[in-house]
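Can you give me the bound-state structure? Components:
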Amino acid sequence: MKAPAAGSSATRSPATRPSAGRSPATRYGLVVTGLLVALAVAVVAGVALGSVRIPVGEVVPILTGRAAPSPYRTIVLDVRLPRVLLGAVVGGGLAVVGAVLQALVRNRLADPFLLGISSGASAGAVLVLVLGVGGGVGITSAVALPAGAFAGALLALVLVYALARRGATMTGAGLVLAGVAVSYILAALTTLLLVLAGRPEHFQEAMFWSLGGLGSARWDTLALPAVVLALGIAALLTLARPLDLLLVGEEGATVLGLDTARFRAAVFVLASLVTAVMVAASGAVGFVGLMVLHAARMAVGAPHRRLLPVAALGGALALVLADLAARTVAAPQDIPVGVLTALTGGPFFLWLMRRRAEGSPV
Amino acid sequence: MTELRLEALSYGTRLREVDLTARPGETVGLVGPNGSGKTTLLRCVQGILTPTSGRALLDGDDLHTLTPKARARRIAGVPQDSSSEFELTVREVVALGRSPHKRFWETDTAEDRARVERALTRVGVAELADRPYPTLSGGERQRALVARALVQDPALLVLDEPTNHLDIRHQLDVLGLARRLGARGTTNILALHDLNLAAAHCDRLYVLERGRVVAEGPPGEVLTPALLAAVYGVAAEVIPHPTTGTPTVLYLPGPPVEHDLSAM
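Here's the bound-state model for the whole set.
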């Protein structure tokens, strides 16, 4: 059959991968290398720029540990570097979670923030904070806060999923509506908790939990997110095949041998865990994954073995750059980084939604 | 060589106490009007639906107690349609058919990849292999899904309306492929709308009406004017094909002549 659709792929497919001339493996290597270089540059820039500008010539030796004693040493190593690295870790984590959620609900509009998971994590963390579980300081709090966030995140995700699902079908619109509603309720609850607890800083704290910010980064708050991100990516990479199976739909996955109910539960837990740890460190930064994942799929395709590393690097790059902008565009004001990600990711989300409404297969 | 046996299989009101046997290497066709339960039956066989009562046995194993993976190693299906907004390429979609034979962390071996290429060629979609799956036409998708079922290397092949998006040449190709697999020991069960295709390509037919089996047997015994009138409400003659001799249905205009079904 030569159906009309069997034209050349170049003229017809909306997101033809420009793979001509290069093997997918070479292409993948190029993309990853390019992202690594860009991330390194962004990290150096993120450390050099800010309220006090530090010459790059001074930054690099300090970072590589070969510097003569420098007046900038403290700013670079104790203030800026942990902040930039936290941005990279959180951005990478949120983009990876975004990729997994999009596979789970088979929808490009999915994002931990839009599905209410981040707000759930915020609410859980604030509850721990307000109740004073774990003493409020030191190592117990470093565990109790993420644990509370995890419980909140998992609860929100299960709730939104159950609300959006009607029988076997789940529409993008239903999903986003349920996510946004749950997100609002939980954000309101978070603020209410802070006010009721009589915390004098409640206004600022509420802003941190609902919009996110990297200003509180320290070396000791960086360790847990970094470890969780590394383990999370490792775990998800071993699950690349079942994640790919999700892309053909629940029925398709079942007839190809996937125990979908069990796998979905495992993915819920993993996604909530990574989101919660990121949110506990940085508040609920939204929209990080949407644009990154769109670009990543165009560059390396949908299979998760290739997608996840690219998503992690792209998310890291995106949030490092966003935070750099947050610190510099209105300096000395420090804009919450979530404001900038929402200002860029939000319109992109709307564009994606319009495109789908117009019947494009993507 | 695999035998499928359904024993009083029921699914709510959509499928009522269906008994069915597909013997090793046999191609069994399900025919019947829309809503008669063909798809429901096939979904039960694939483990997508769990029957409300009765059993489905694959060489004596109740297939609803098998793990999804153990089931997928033995049963492959071509769903009516499945689309995805994510652009896995056609090759990537077909390669997923190797999944039941893999641990979840394993990647495809050279042998897996060779199987995929063979299957792509066999159903005639090799030149589409690098295209994003969602950009394919209905018929191209269907052939890609047949390729996926082939790389799954099943003992039982389940095809639900495998021909409904295909032009006549590819209809014959897909059904011929099922036949050749049958000759090599694969058991086939398929739902078909086109009675003449069913008669030509199936060893035995089961006629479903409102969830019940109302007739079964070789096409020549099952496809009678009386049955067509009773089940489909059409007037028709059934004559042997002038060349092949298979029973061929010729539809007549107008309402069916009254037939006494109990005489069948």
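A couple of observations. Chain B has two domains: 4-222, 224-264. The longest strand of chain B covers residues 4-11.
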